[in-house]
Amino acid sequence: MSTVVSRVLDDEVGHLGVFDADACMNCGVCSAMCPLGTDLLPRRVFRYAVLGMKARLHEQSEAVFSCLLCRLCEQNCPASVHITENVRLLRRWLLDHPNEAR
Amino acid sequence: MPLAAREVTGILADNLRMRGSVLPVPSRRATRWATQMGLRKGGPTVLYTGMMYRVVPYVEGLNRLQARIAGTPLARYMWAARLANKATRGYGMTLLARPSAAERAELGRVPANVARLLQAASVDFGYLYEDDLYTGALVYDLGSDEVVGEHARRVAATLRKHGVSEVITIDPHTTTMLRSVFPKFIEGYDIKVRSYLEVLTERGCPGGPQLAPRSGAEVVIHDSCVYARYEDVVDQPRQLLAAAGVKVLEPGQAGRQTWCCGGPAESLYPDKALAVAAKRAEQLRAVAPTCVTMCPICLVTLRKAADQGLRVRDISEFLVMARAKS
What we know:
The complex is a heterodimer.
Chain A: H1 8-14, H2 29-33, H3 43-50, H4 54-59, H5 61-66, H6 72-76, H7 83-96
Chain B: H1 3-19, H2 27-30, H3 32-37, E1 45-48, H4 52-69, H5 78-87, H6 101-120, E2 126-127, H7 137-141, H8 145-161, E3 166-169, H9 172-185, E4 192-195, H10 196-202, E5 218-221, H11 225-230, H12 235-243, E6 247-249, H13 270-285, E7 290-293, H14 296-305, E8 311-314, H15 315-325
Parallel strand pairs in B: 1-2, 1-3, 3-4, 5-6, 5-7, 7-8
Helix pairs in contact in B: 1-5, 1-8, 6-15, 10-12, 13-14
């Protein structure tokens, strides 16, 4: 599946609130600690958002919406990323843009 | 996103906008405990339940309904369920999500428990009865900020109408909505918000010296993620339980490192929620056969995942029980 890399998505989500996914350094602490046991949340999803990969983000909507917002990742994030608020803003973007899978 | 998830989110948001709650419950029945206790209406300080202990059993009922529909051809027609819910007068889908009387009764005891504890601590407070409104926590978590913002302004206006300057909450989700989320939506919002666990602890664990004989209970504590990591409520439940003579045991992950009960995923992904809850129940059961929670979502979710080897009870039950023994 083709994707288009751009900053548009990052800007669009950023307009919804304080979105600091680009502070993520992709270290993996969040994924290692997540009670859901997935390796998708949240670092990979954030990368899709920052790179404007709308199709990939839509593919991962189940990961975005199944996040528990429990903040265990955020509590241990070495970069102090506001992970749960970022996830919430991505939910909002997905709800607002149901047809932007391309 | 999956169609069902979109429609479930939509139904909850529609209800909050149209009916003032994700699943509205009859307010007279839900506030009967306060009438029976003779709580005054309003005043500068009020006990505010946000109906969470009332609403959660109905959300659980809706989840059971979804589980029955999932995987059947009916799942493709969730859009029709949303339309029907919007078109229906009165309580909408609440009628289909009705929990058992036992479920309603157990969680319904908690507000009265808290009121008794505050009275015993000589806290002067009133209650808003039919104006004790749900705060919109679940819809906020799902990302529907416009709906929540509008609802937050309605709740704040109701508090102002009653001259409220301080609220005492009884669950973590209502606490964080009123204390940390509402200020984002309402300019000049200045309501002081504290959990009853904080109020009682600030008063020096009232009841502690009065609580004799000691209860002798031994429990493993399950911290709420929202209390521990959003609102910094970690020490208070431990101090109160200790003052009530309850021996508190810590699971491997506790306090700010607590492990989620899985409940927040329940409405959209019940299988994932149950898997997380089962892991947590196992962690807790390894420490003690009785677990204490301080959130209605944790209580319901862990209880569903736990087998007979783990009893799950609300913290207010222990605190009131200790008082009764004193």
